[in-house]
């Protein structure tokens, strides 16, 4: 015989859940015409609990939403049965969609696949000083939200981001291989915060180019064309430049290869920066990259107080771009760029040699990042948002939204 606590007439094993007696009281009060809040007050429950109970466990066989205590108790007991089959395990189309966006191959702008570095799965988190697996690397939240846009009329193509995390980290949930955790941006087994580095200020920054002098239109992101930039650093003094547009989150990467003689001859004091990310090299890379954009998308650039921007006055002349600098030790003033740099560490981990990547590699990674949906863009991709801005300008519509 079944244990007594599983009997339909027994109380709920936890006061967290409604009991049969409470459901009978709900049915009586509803029949008397009392509202949801009045029922909740009398039972000492939250109004949302009563509303959800009436919606989920109502009897629908008659075509309406009649609430009967015994039927509601049956619905609740059926939903509480464990173990329940994982949603990804029983839906092949949904499982394929999730896997493709977690581990799909990065492609070059021409469409050819780019495998990236070869990384062996070790059954544990990857160290900080190792190459990471390249992939489309959408986050579970991005995947869950994008499903509603890609399949608006198919309710079977729905899953929460927490269910995806459980399928990855709890192997009893099945459906997804543990190796796919290497495709998550952080690569960690647990979701914990990571400390950020702080930077020092530089003396070449004058008061008129501080962030406090930046136009108010930059802050509210209403007008596109305002950029944030930074360098991500690697071993052997290697670096990659990043530019992120504040309104659309569109990202461009700067290829900064080492100059001739780097690592082969002793470094000369006050000599040229042979590592490839000196002031002159960064200025030329920014000017050549951003010059490909229309003039209305080249309004300002916000950078930290790194020495690589010592030639900002000449950059303003070459690119027609007003440059502003953050306050010392204030990386949150470039929050969009800091977030993007964290996403890029999926492809360019700390402690690896970034000079091994070619310009085509950077273009492929930028294309992958610009094709990932963003919550702040209502789950559109940065590329789609930038296309909308360009189309609005071509049609003569003001870009203030």
From TrEMBL:
GO terms for molecular function: DNA binding; transposase activity. Signal peptide: none annotated. Residues 211-390 form the Integrase catalytic domain. Transmembrane segments: none annotated. It holds the Pfam family HTH_38. Keywords: DNA recombination, DNA-binding, Transposition. InterPro entries: Homeodomain-like_sf (IPR009057), Integrase_cat-core (IPR001584), IS30-like_HTH (IPR025246), RNaseH-like_sf (IPR012337), RNaseH_sf (IPR036397), Transposase-Integrase (IPR051917), Transposase_IS30-like (IPR053392), Transposase_IS30_CS (IPR001598). One of its GO terms (biological process) is DNA transposition. One of its GO terms (cellular component) is cytosol. Required for the transposition of the insertion element. Belongs to the transposase IS30 family. This is Integrase. It comes from Methylobacterium aquaticum.
